[in-house]
Structure prediction request, 338 residues.
Amino acid sequence: MLPWASLGLLSLMIGCSPDPKPGLLSAPWPTAQVRVAAVESHGFTATEEVVGTVRTRLHATVEAKVAGRIESLTAAPGQTVRQGQVLATLDARETQARLDSAKAVLDQAARDLERVGRLLKDGAATPSELEAVQSRHRVAVASASEIETLLGHARVVAPFDGVITRKAVDIGDLATPGRPLVEIEDPTHLRFEADVPEALIDQIASGARLPVRIASRKDSIEGVVVEIAPVAEAVSRTYRVTLDLPVVPGLRAGQFGRVAVPTGQATVPHVPSTAVFSKGQLEYVVVAVAGRAQLRLVRTGKRLAADVEVISGLDVGEKVVVLEPDRVREGQPLEVIP
Prediction:
């Protein structure tokens, strides 16, 4: 075969060969600057979390004390009201008529008392007659006072400063004693209520300070135990425990949370909670091994303040990445920064 033919055949084979794999020509991962923390193990107070709900300390269902049609209703859900502010006004014409009649009887009793008093001085009346007139006057005073009090109930007012959470009636409805008109809560004083199993109730004492984690918040809140139900609920065998919560912006009644009840002392490995990230249903950490990243599957347990318990996957003393570990790739060079 001629040399030029061999050269042409070689060129044709090179031109038809497949492209090299991109991975063979790609550059290695750049060095990642990371912060690390050592896996530690020391004693801590073991806890058991119990679910509960944020409630308001002051909650009232406002009702009318007298019957009557609702003439005006100024309360609306979400409205902020002050103590003594008028929420609704009832039609009180019937009660007003009764009051007018009672005042007329009182005026007549007052005139009779004055007349009999003069007659007694002139010797034209007896002490028994004066006593009878005085009794009728006292009855008239009491009757007028009672009806006047009922007339005052035609104006339904807020029992304390708070926010209207529910309106159950509207203008024109008939208000009767026992029928709710509106519900009001004080959002500035909140509590956390949890039903604690009887196996844990002995670990809680009145005045104890326990951490409360609200689902919508990253940090925990310290609550103070103020009430412990003396009797367990018959079906669930739990005790209602109430904790006072501090004033925290954004905290609202009805939010779901968990309170950590101490159960004893324990020693387990733990890492900062920022070192753990999830992929699907699995949890991982990035371990710094010989200057490179090693992805490690772990199983975590309870949260311990800013740390999380590590049940398996790590040994005490190993270094884990705590700053955005999910951005580090397997085998990537690492540079530890303070």
Summary: The chain has four helices and 22 strands. The domain at 37-56+189-336 is CATH 2.40.30.170 (Elongation Factor Tu (Ef-tu); domain 3).
